[in-house]
């Protein structure tokens, strides 16, 4: 796996999380439930970045999706060992980053998602949307390849093979795809954005494709962006709104 420096940078956001922690089929999950009535057969998989579901920013976003009528499940696919939040808060952290990355490969992380899906299907959930940030964007693509999810949204996705994954998406997935892209992103740069548009845009991908571009933003903006910067604040809020609207397809 190959990350960029911006995968581990950003700020924490203020707010009080309202969701609950549940262990579902052995998987620790942050769960956000709407206060109003919602379709019990539908759910959103929130697939977080390297900081995992313990990051308050991710919890607050999950709560916001719940406020818009979606039951949200955010699995801890790092097995209690996410990237240290101290990298965002400025605390002293000692970490062997290459070792952390190698220890949290697909063989380690993907089974947590699969176990959660088994349990949710047993609960009667039949339709899933997925939103993925950075690391989680990779899994949105994988779940879409397998047509496990009905609707897909990614924000500054990491670890994609280009253009291979975009071509595979076009050939194998039935899930409408939203991509929230930005100005500065080593993981999904302008070349990749153009490739996505060329392969999936202009009606070429029948289920639906849309790419939003948030000017002045950097990889990580949708979940770890500095909200004191007006452009980043607009990108964070705009990408969330675009994703909520996209999930109307679920």
What does this structure look like?
The chain is of the alpha/beta class and 250 residues long. Helices cover 37% and strands 20% of the residues. The protein has nine helices and eight strands. It has helices spanning 56-67, 86-89, 97-103, 106-122, 135-145, 164-172, 190-200, 221-224, 230-246; strands at 20-24, 27-32, 42-47, 72-75, 127-133, 151-155, 177-184, 209-218. An eight-stranded mixed beta sheet has the order 1-2-4-3-5-6-7-8, sandwiched between helices. Helix 5 links the parallel strand 5 (127-133) and strand 6. The longest helix has 17 residues, at 106-122. The protein is globular, with a radius of gyration of 17 Å.
SSE order and pairing:
Layout (H helix, E strand, L loop, with lengths): L19 E5 L2 E6 L9 E6 L8 H12 L4 E4 L10 H4 L7 H7 L2 H17 L4 E7 L1 H11 L5 E5 L8 H9 L4 E8 L5 H11 L8 E10 L2 H4 L5 H17 L4
Parallel strand pairs: 3-4, 3-5, 5-6, 6-7, 7-8
Antiparallel strand pairs: 1-2, 2-4
The total of helices stands at 9
Count all strands and give the number.
8
What is the terminal separation in angstroms? 31 Å
Described by its quaternary structure, the protein is single chain
**Low-confidence parts:** none
Kindly state the mean pLDDT as a whole number?
96
């Amino acid at each position: 796996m190959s990350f960029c420096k911006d995968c581990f940078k950003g700020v924490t956001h203020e707010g009080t999380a309202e969701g609950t922690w549940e262990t579902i089929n052995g998987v620790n999950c942050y769960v956000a439930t709407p206060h109003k009535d919602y379709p019990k057969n539908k759910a959103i998989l929130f697939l977080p970045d390297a900081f995992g579901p313990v990051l308050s920013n991710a919890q607050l976003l999950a709560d916001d999706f719940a406020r818009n009528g979606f039951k949200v499940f955010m699995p801890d696919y790092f097995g209690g060992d996410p990237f240290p939040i101290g990298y965002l808060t400025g605390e002293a952290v000692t970490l062997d980053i290459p070792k952390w990355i190698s220890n949290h490969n697909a063989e380690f992380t993907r089974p947590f998602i699969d176990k959660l899906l088994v349990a949710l299907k047993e609960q009667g959930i039949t339709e899933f949307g997925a939103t993925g940030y950075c690391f989680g964007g990779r899994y949105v693509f994988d779940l879409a390849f397998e047509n496990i999810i009905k609707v897909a949204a990614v924000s500054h996705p990491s670890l994609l093979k280009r253009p291979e994954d975009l071509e595979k998406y076009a050939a194998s997935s039935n899930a409408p795809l939203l991509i929230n892209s930005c100005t500065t992103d080593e993981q999904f740069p302008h070349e990749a954005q153009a490739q996505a548009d060329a392969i999936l845009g202009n009606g070429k991908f029948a289920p639906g494709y849309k790419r939003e571009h948030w000017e002045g933003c950097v990889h990580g903006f949708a979940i770890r962006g500095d909200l004191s910067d007006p452009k980043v604040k607009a990108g964070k809020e705009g990408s969330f709104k675009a994703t909520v609207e996209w999930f109307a397809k679920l």
